[in-house]
Each structure stands twice: as C-alpha cells, then as structure tokens.
Amino acid sequence: MKVLCLNGPNLNRLGKREKKAYGTFTLEELENELMDFAGSNGINLMCMQSNHEGELVDWIHLAADDGTDAIVLNAGAYTHTSVAIRDAIASIQIPVVEVHISNVYKREEFRHHSYIAPVAAGQITGFGQDVYKLALHALLLQQSRG
Residues that bind substrate, according to the entry (predicted)? Predict the structure, then answer.
C-alpha cells in the first residue's frame, strides 16, 4: 500500500508552537515515527509539508495519478478555509483521511467547520500525534476488507 502523508501550514512549527494544543514533538520526529510504523505494516509512506495551498492541491492531484493508494491529510488552517483543497480531494478517486492533532471541536468556533470532511473517507481528531497512525491503521483495515 502506497500512502502520501500531507501536512499543511504551520505544521513545520510543531514542537515550537502552541505546545498545549500540539505537544512538544517536532514534524521530523513525527515523520520518523510514522515511517517506522508504516514500514512495520507494509506501507510505502511518503511525507510532505507545505505552507502553500496550491502546492498541497498539486500534490493531491499527483498522488491520484502516480499510483498512490490513499492520502492522510492534516490541512491545518486550510481545513476551515480552502475550497480549493476540498475540490482537489473531490476530483480524485483515492481515499483521503483528514487528521488533526488537537480536538478542533474543543477549540475556537471557526475550527468546528471542515471543508474537507464531506469529501474525505473519514476524520480523526484529538488524539495527538497518534491520529496519523490511527489513520494508517484505518486504511489498512479498509484495504484488508477489499
């Protein structure tokens, strides 16, 4: 199984920003942990991060065309603002799992709406860095069920 893990704006600041909401781990530490988990579970994982909406849209399109089986997406603040990312997901035929490190529903009201959720295969929120592993696990379960 080939999976693309996309992280959106400000996730490159993990470990430095809002530690109460996001913890103390860095993006590099998160990606290393995910690569180990993926390797142990037969997943070919690629991780990418961008602060630029159009770049995320381009990567979603490329994933759909290069044989990627699924995407794990933390779109950060674009979750609540980007029709472009929503439309990119709607335009592809592979599952996208939306993840959020913090529980967005316990935070500011504007974070309670996701443009991505209606076009995603599922959403996992609020379990810290484990949301990524939970998403990979869910994708494996879906794959095993055919």
Answer: 74, 80, 87, 101-102, 111
For 78-87, the pLDDT digits (tens) are 999 999 999 9
Can 78 be counted among the known catalytic residues? no
**Using an 8 Å Cβ cutoff, are 3 and 136 in contact?**
yes
Q: Is 115 assigned a catalytic role?
A: no
Instruction: Using the structure block, give the residue that is written with the tokens 């991780």.
Output: 47
pTM, two decimal places: 0.93
The domain that contains 129 carries what CATH number?
A: 3.40.50.9100
- Rounded to the nearest 10°, the torsion over CA 54, 74, 35, 51 is 40
pLDDT digits (tens, 9 = 90+) for 53-66: 999 999 999 999 99
